Amino acid sequence: MEENVKSLYEKWKIATENDKELSVDLSGLTEEEIFDRFYRELDFGTAGLRGVLGAGTNRMNIYTVARASTGVAKCIVGNKKKVCSVAIAYDSRNNSELFAKTAAAVYAANGMHVYIYPELMPTPALSYAVRNLQCDAGVVITASHNPAKYNGYKVYGDDGCQITETVAAQILERIKETPYFEEIPSFEILLGEGKIEYISKALTEAYIADAVACARAAREGDRALKVVYTPLNGAGMRCVTEALAKCGFRDITVVPEQEKPDGNFPTCPYPNPEIKEALALGLDLMQETGADLLLATDPDCDRVGTAVPMGDSYRLISGNEMGILLLDYICREKSLQGSMPKEPMAVKTVVSTDMTYEVAKKYGVRIVDVLTGFKYIGEQIALLEEAGKEENYLFGFEESYGYLCSGFVRDKDGVSTSVLICEMAAFYKSQGKTLGDRMNELYTEFGTYRNFVDNFAFEGSVGMEKMLGIMTSLREDPPKAVLGHRLIAVNDYLKSESVSLETGAREKIDLPKSNVLKFVYDGGLGIIARPSGTEPKLKIYYTVKADSDALAEELVQSLAGKGGAFASLVIS
Fold first, then answer.
1. CA gyration radius, the chain
2. Closest listed residue to residue 297, CA positions, set 330, 266, 255
3. β-pairing verdict for 49-52 and 137-141
4. How many other C-beta atoms can be found within 10 angstroms of the C-beta atom of residue 253?
5. What is the pLDDT of residues 389-429, one digit of tens each?
6. Strand ranges across the sheet with 227-230
7. Beta-strand runs (E) in 259-404
């Protein structure tokens, strides 16, 4: 075992002697386990901290949370000439409330006024609180859809968006200056002194009302819908069910095993609404009750997964498909109601489906592509707001099941989206259709699109070097043809340049630099390569277009995996 690791281990054993949980956690460890806990510190980036719960520098615990909070506080207070404030929320994960109160006490001790929710709340409610309370920052304790052993610490700016790379780097410098075992003040004492205050029920009610209002902008009436809902033992229960009730949806059945908050997620070890296994109980209940729709929100309720009946079985609606359904529905309703803005705009991430362009063209909507991360969608709303054109924003989405239909928050929102999905489903039900039927109609109109992602792991420093080498090779010499589809354009987000291979024309990409490459092939084939920002993986996103499901599936099978038509050319 390395000397530094052993020294840190002994120091933590002494420092946590009076902390029963962490002291027990450090006992009886193997050398390999000790090394894993202390060989590095948790990374701090634009998504804050995320890691496995436990004692150690490479774990989520009250000391890593307190240290990060001190770094954030010093960065904010040092840049302001006024009394600063911060809003804090937390979800159902193990130790979330403890970490939230630890952070609150540290912020208050560093001279910031703290607003904290008195109960677990969705992540978008934190964005709402930051904006409405005019806070300088926000924090939400969550690890999103990760397994139960994880927790995390997301940081937001005064705009209600997650922090940028520049701010994250500034905060990291302050964190590095902070020792681990500074005394953590008493939350209760600071609460009694008024330096910490609970966020009022009125603000929560206002958030729910605004979530309903932005969703109901599409259509009134058509509430005859039978819904099964699961919060996946997370934070969505109160806000989603109240919002649906306020909007007139009464026939809501909640999956009983997943209704109450439980950070162990006993019925879905990987609580991710993108995957079928997490929805198993909901799917069973949907079929048992004859429901028209299954809604599932992830533990911090910023993302939504759905399924609809299909004969004797069901159909899962993908993130890209729901993005298309919602965009089409919003545009259609606004066009019919005469409420479409003069310069309508929708926003998607670069890895989301190219079918968006087809739908947008039909309605005269401008599509803005942004990098992966919902903060970039929030930035586009802010730019419209600064120009006095916020009404031009129609919708934003990312393929990983995140959607936002209004600028009232600046992060993906599972509450307003749940209401909007139900309104849309009820409307199509009144026409004798499911959301699956409507998606098939759109495929008939625009062509059948399929989207999927391949992940290729590259472990260790050698693996990282190889992954970056693949990106360099792709940048210098991309495959000129794949499955008979000819390369016609390359978007290089590191060089901030789009190049047409047909005309030689070059256009500037006005986005932050990022190591992402998009290859556009004729016939509707699109391929994007980017290293993961959180894992040692190369992610390759595919969009295929065909005249039928069968042909689209044939293309998918030809592309999928390491032996697929694209990956086999670039990954040895």
1. 24
2. 255
3. unpaired
4. 17
5. 999 999 999 999 999 999 999 999 999 999 999 999 999 99
6. 252-254, 227-230, 293-297, 304-310, 313-317
7. 293-297, 304-310, 313-317, 345-349, 366-370, 393-398, 402-404
- Indicate whether 57 pLDDT > 70: yes
What type of residue sits at position 218? A
Cα–Cα distance for residue pair 403/420, rounded to 1 Å:
10
Cα separation, 427 vs 435, in Å, equals: 10
CA distance 243 to 301: 13
The residues, ordered by sequence, that sit 6+ positions from 186 with a Cβ below 8 Å of its Cβ are 105
pTM, rounded to two decimals? 0.94
Token output for 152: 């995390």
Quote the tokens at residue 394.
């129609």
Q: Which of 85, 96, 127, 144 is catalytic?
A: 144
CB distance 290 to 226 below 8 Å: yes
Q: Assign 29 to helix, strand or coil.
A: coil
Give the amino acid at 275: I
Q: Residue type for 101, please?
A: K
For residue 456, list its beta bridge partners.
538
**What is the distance between the terminal CA atoms of the chain, rounded to a whole angstrom?**
34
Q: Are 243 and 297 in contact (CB under 8 A)?
A: no
Distance CA 77, CA 70 (A): 10
CB 227 within 8 A of CB 292: yes
Rounded Cα distance, 30 and 460, in Å: 21
Residue (of 363, 349, 408) closest to 533 by Cα position: 349
Question: Per-residue DSSP letters for 80-100?
Answer: -SS--EEEEEE-SSTTHHHHH
Enumerate the β-bridge partners of residue 316: 307
Q: How far is CA 337 from CA 71, 330, 331, 334, 340, in A?
A: 50, 11, 10, 5, 8
Q: What is d(CA 35, CA 9) in angstroms, rounded to the nearest whole number?
A: 9
How far CA 103 is from CA of 44, 56, 100, 171, 174, in Å, comes to 15, 18, 5, 15, 16
> Over the stretch 425-479, which tens digit does the pLDDT of each residue have?
999 999 999 999 999 999 999 999 999 999 999 876 678 888 989 999 999 999 9
Residue 144 annotated as catalytic: yes
> What is the spatial distance between Cα 508 and Cα 259, in angstroms, rounded to a whole number?
49
> Pairing state of beta strands 252-254 and 227-230?
parallel
In residues, how long is the chain? 572
Check: CB of residue 274 under 8 Å from CB of residue 305: yes
Q: Which amino acid is at 291?
A: A
> Contact 480/567 with Cβ under 8 angstroms?
no
User: What 3-state DSSP class applies to 453?
Assistant: strand
Burial zone of 45 (CB within 10 Å; 0-12 exposed, 13-18 middle, 19+ buried): middle
